[in-house]
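Q: How would the structure tokens look for this protein?
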Amino acid sequence: MEVSIRDYEAYLYDHYKSHGIDSSLFMKLVEEVGEVAEVLNKRDGRKASDHEDLKSQLANELVDVIHYAFAIASLNDIDLNNAILEKDRQASVKYKHDRNLEQFMSER
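A: Here is the predicted structure in token form.
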């Protein structure tokens, strides 16, 4: 099963609409970003690791980051699908990329 951006936004809105507070969700997001940094530090040898499955840990922490970022967007009625496409369009012009995300997707 694949999850679309719109489905995930709707799911998170439904989950947080009655008790989601942007500032508390943002604090969770920051916490999760720190946990991503911790796993990367272990992976790169800057922090001790006891034969942990760092790839799995990294995946889990990145999912947590995405979760809270999407929840904040959803509660603020931000369409991340359109925001991603527009931001990529602007970046591809700014950084003179050969193609943007929309072009990449249409080629596939």
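The first helix runs from residue 5 to 16.

The chain has two domains: 1-77, 78-108.

Upvote if useful.
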